[in-house]
Amino acid sequence: KGADFMSYMTFESFLKAQTVSGIRNAYAKSLNEGVAEYEVEFEGKSQALAMGLAQTSPDGLNFKVTGLTGNRITAEVVQ
Question: Under the phi-then-psi rule, with left for phi > 0, alpha for psi from -120 to 50, and beta for the rest, what region is 47?
Fold first, then answer.
């Protein structure tokens, strides 16, 4: 939530750089009305990925993890 095109691209690069341990690959799927969607191939549980994302952030982009359901993580860009 709260994503614009630049934050969408920045976050994709962040995921693809495999900054969080366990990320194998990441794909940007869509950006629609401020909601960005990515598919992430992760070796481990979604809770571990959410924790890794919550503890790391790309330069110039602040976000917070706001939800975790099954294999879906929800996050919000913080301005």
Answer: alpha
